Amino acid sequence: MNRLRLGGVVAVGGSLGTLARYGLTEALGPPDGVPWATLTANLAGAFALGVLLEALLRAGEENATRRAIRLGIGTGFLGGFTTFSSLALETERLINGGQLGLAAGYVLASLSLGLLLALAGIAAGGARSRRTGPPEHGGVR
What pTM did the predictor assign? Predict the structure, then answer.
């Protein structure tokens, strides 16, 4: 797949991820203190990226299909779904609103739980690969 098509895969994935985050934000409503939509998107995205990248890594060397999946889902969809800029902006608003404890808790929860969920995603991606086995031995990929 040429670079232009890979760029298109990233763009489509990013658009879908951004729409998914918008839908999540609409479903959870406007923040009344804790920005739940951003926190949920970032934590779910950290877990999903861990699962995806570990599964792709264990699937073998990157080929054209795996590269398109990594770029479309990882870079595109999950890049559009998660949002560091919203985390930074919402933290700034909490600080300016005098909610220093909530701002600190929000940042701490986002980073620490995001790391834990990324590690859990890696473990889940690895467990799935161990269960199915390598493709040359009849495993399902």
Answer: 0.87
